[in-house]
Amino acid sequence: MNKTVEINITKTTTSKLxxxxxxxxxFGHILSDHMFVVDYxxxxxxxxxxxxxxxxxxxxxxxxxHYGQSIFEGLKAYKNEHGEIIVFRPDANHxxxxxxxxxxxxxxxxxxxxxxxxxxxxxLDREWVPxxxxxxxxxxxFIFATDEFLGIRPSFKYKFMILTxxxxxxxxxxxxxxxxxxxxxxxxxxxGFAKAAGNYAGSLYPALQAQKQGYDQLLWTDGKTHQHIxxxxxMNVMFVINGTLVTAPTNTGTILKGITRDSILTLxxxxxMPLEERFLGVNELQECLENGSLQEAFGxxxxxxxxxxxxxxxxxxxxxxxxxxxxxxxxxxxxxxxxIKYGLEEDTRGWIRKY
Length: 355
Ligand code: COI
What we know:
Oligomer: single chain
Strand content: 25-35%
Helix content: 10-25%
Bound molecules: 2-OXO-4-methylpentanoic acid
Shape: globular
Order of helices and strands: EEEHEEEHHEEEHEEEEHEHEEEHE
CATH class of the largest domain: Alpha Beta
CATH architecture of the largest domain: 2-Layer Sandwich
CATH superfamily of the largest domain: Aminotransferase class 4, branched-chain amino acid transferase, N-terminal domain
Distance between the termini: 16 Å
Radius of gyration: 21 Å
């Protein structure tokens, strides 16, 4: 991290800042003025640069287009009341990017390139970080193969890029989910733990079927038996059952090691919330819905932070969850997490970096 990274900067001459409506931000539609780019070739990362956000020229034989050798990350920057920019746990994102990269045969990205690229990009586009409560600048680091070759093998060349996008809430209301017992998101030995582009592509069709039936997302079950719950949509999922927080463990290699998940588990322990990292059976979930012991269910991820679940379909039966009071664990932990992210509560865990 101490190595200096020389980044060549070309500023835009046509900023989109003035025409951007910061009062009506949705997720992922607006991209900020600049992007960070660095190429991997001849065994090394070369020519780090920040350039105006613009389309890329891609060779039709590009390996990513054909074989999907591509990974990404997601994190957020917030503006505090002093106008400082706060980024939440970027070191964890860098670590996970390289864990995903290893599984996908993508070369390791040095921490200083990740941190310095992000830091200089944020500095240049600091006006793009929204200051309105609930809004943030979504940061999307990603790496993809750039060989022009139709044979199948790990690419020799890659691009690492960082885009940023001012965003509002990911979900505007609590979501409805359906337990999926036919399609699988991940299997043991597969790529489920990695933030690999193909995992998301493969989840689209099953999610679309659920959406046609009136649900927002799926509750994914394990790929072998479909008898226990693993994730929700693109998020980790947590339940509060009889006052205990229950979430799936991440040691099977099928579940993303969510940074929001990890942060919530840390805060839950500090808040004295009983906690079990164990698989929740589909039938057990149904029993808990029937006997009223399931108090809360929510997805956790960078984009939504906490996505409250209001309706769950299990074994073709719909169950409505109780209304969440402000006292509900999911609301209390979200409030605490937001306070840390917006710099309103002291960061005693080394989670935030200021720019
Ligand atoms: C996240 O919330 O962590 C995500 O990866 C969401 C993204 C697919 C939009």
